[in-house]
Design brief:
The chain is an alpha+beta fold. The protein folds into two domains: 62 residues, 3-Layer(aba) Sandwich (Ribosomal Protein L9, domain 1), CATH 3.40.5; 79 residues, Ribosomal protein L9, C-terminal domain (Ribosomal Protein L9, domain 2, Roll), CATH 3.10.430. It is built from three helices and nine strands; from the N terminus they run ββαβαββαββββ. It has a four-stranded mixed β-sheet, with helices on one face. The chain has a three-stranded antiparallel β-sheet with strand order 2-1-3, covered by helices on one side. Strands 5-7 form a two-stranded antiparallel sheet. The radius of gyration is 20 Å and the shape is elongated.
């Protein structure tokens, strides 16, 4: 079943992508939730016209994302956390704390666009996070977790 995505769907594709999915997934989940539409001939023609018109806007968005990526490259964040005497964190550091630290540095990035490479950050140390600024632009930043 071919569908056109109306929103970004994790592990499937980005907005305006044309993808093939199993019929049940498309019919029972994606289409009723408003995440996709069926890729009929008329829908594909409308999609092609929309993509042609958006090409210029998309290039500007990509350029802005690359500019922000250049500013973020080499940035090292320090995140304070309450720890025990052995260096274990009470709780864990999540993308929310990284987004707040970036906000203090002057970068407004949504937390859903931040992915921590390690599964759980539960100890003091240096870690890496991936920030997705655009579908083609990603930047790695290092953050250090220190005891407060």
């Amino acid at each position: 079943m071919r569908i056109i995505l109306k929103e970004d769907v994790a592990n499937l594709g980005h907005k305006n992508d044309i993808v093939d999915v199993k019929p049940g997934y498309g019919r029972n989940f994606l289409i009723p939730k408003g995440l996709a539409i069926l890729a009929t001939d008329s829908a594909l023609k409308v999609h092609a016209e929309n993509m042609r018109q958006r090409a210029h806007k998309e290039e500007k968005i990509r350029f802005d994302a690359k500019t922000v990526a250049e500013k973020l490259d080499g940035l090292k964040l320090t995140i304070g956390a309450k720890t025990s005497s052995t260096g274990k964190i009470f709780g864990s550091v999540t993308n929310i704390q990284i987004a707040e630290a970036l906000e203090k540095e002057g970068f407004a990035i949504e937390r859903k666009n931040i992915l921590i490479k390690e599964e759980h950050v539960k100890e003091v140390g240096t870690y890496t996070a991936v920030i997705k600024l655009h579908r083609d632009v990603k930047v790695n930043i290092e953050f250090e977790v220190v005891s407060e």
